[in-house]
C-alpha cells in the first residue's frame, strides 16, 4: 500500500473517508424526519394519525393460517423456490379479473408483471424511463415514497397545480409547454387518481381522459398509481385512466391495502412494448417476486369471499373518516380547513399560511399525537402549512381523542 494511502486510512473517520465513495443521491445528510415520526408513533400512549396502515382485523386469520400451511405442505417445492420473474400465471390472470373492477376490461396477463409491492414496480418504471435530470410531473403534493424513488434516480420532479377535483388539465398543458421551452426532457406524469396520498382528493371524472390526452399528445407516459381505488365508501366509481389508453398509461396496483402489505405483492400493467424491458431491468434488483406470497394471494382471491371481507374493512374506514370529520369540525380553530375524501386513508389539513407544520411535529409528540407534516409530500423542498392525517388504522373513539390533542397544539400555534 502507498504510504500516503496508509496515512489517509489512519487519520480519518470512516464516514469522512467514505464520503467521496457515495453516489450523488446518498452524499450529504439524509433527512431522518420520516423515521423519527414512525419511531415516535410507536411510543406507548401515542395516538398515531401518521402511518397509512390498513386495518387487518377484518382478515380471517385462522383460515389464512390453514391456507398457508396447505400451500407449504402440498406445493412447498414451488412455494419456497425461486419463480418466474413475471410472477405466476394464475396470479396474473386473477389480477386481470380484478382490474376489470376498475374499468380495465380485457387486459392480457402477458402484459402484467407481479412485483414486490407496487413500490418496486414504481422503482422499475423510473429505472426504465429516467436518466438523471429527466423530468417527472406530479400532483402538487404526492406520495413521499414515490418522491424517494424519483430522488434515487436523480429525476427533476415538477409539481402541477391541483384543486379539489385533482390535477388541473389546463395547468398540466401550460406546465408541459413551459418546461419544454426551458429545455426539460419530460418522461412521465405520476398520478394517484383515487384518494390521493396525502390529500385524499380524487381526480374528477370529466378530467380523466383529458389528462391522458394531454400527455399522449405531448408524448409523455402517464404512470397511474392506484392502491386505494377499491376502497371507495362514497361517490360514484370512476374508471381507471388506463381503461381507454392501453399504450399510453402504465398502471400500478397493489394488494397492500385490499389484502395485506406484509406479503409485499403489487403489479404493473404495461404497454406490450415495455414488458421485456421492465422484466429484465426490474429483475436485476429483485430476481423474482416471492412465490409463497403470490400463492397465498391467489388462494385468497380464489377460495375466499374476499370482496365481503373488503366491504367490512371499507365500512370501518367510512366510520373512521366520519369520526375524524366530526372531530375536526368540533375542535379545530377558525382558519383551518380540510378535505373530505370519498375513500382511501387520508385527510389533508390546511392551516393559516403563517404556520409551518414541521414545527408542530414535536409539540404534537409531547401531546401524544403523531401526524405527517406537509413538506414530506412536496416535490420540491420547502415549508408547508398543510399536514396529513391517516384515519385508517385507529378506532373511531381514539380518533376523536387524537384530534382533540392535535387541535390544542394547532390552536396554540394559531394564537401565537
Ligand atoms: N403508492 C401509494 C400512493 C402508496 O400510498 C403506497 C403505500 N403507502 C404505495 C404506492 C406502496 O405500496 P406497496 O405496499 O404496494 O409497495
Automatic annotation (TrEMBL):
The keyword Plastid does not apply. It comes from the Bacteria. Residues 46-406 form the Aminotransferase class I/classII large domain. GO terms for biological process: alpha-amino acid metabolic process. Its cofactor is pyridoxal 5'-phosphate. Transmembrane segments: none annotated. One of its GO terms (molecular function) is pyridoxal phosphate binding. InterPro entries: Aminotransferase_I/II_large, Class-I_PLP-dep_aminotransf, PyrdxlP-dep_Trfase, PyrdxlP-dep_Trfase_major, PyrdxlP-dep_Trfase_small. Keywords: Aminotransferase, Pyridoxal phosphate, Transferase. Coiled coil: none annotated. Pfam families: Aminotran_1_2 (PF00155). This is Aminotransferase. It comes from Arthrobacter livingstonensis.
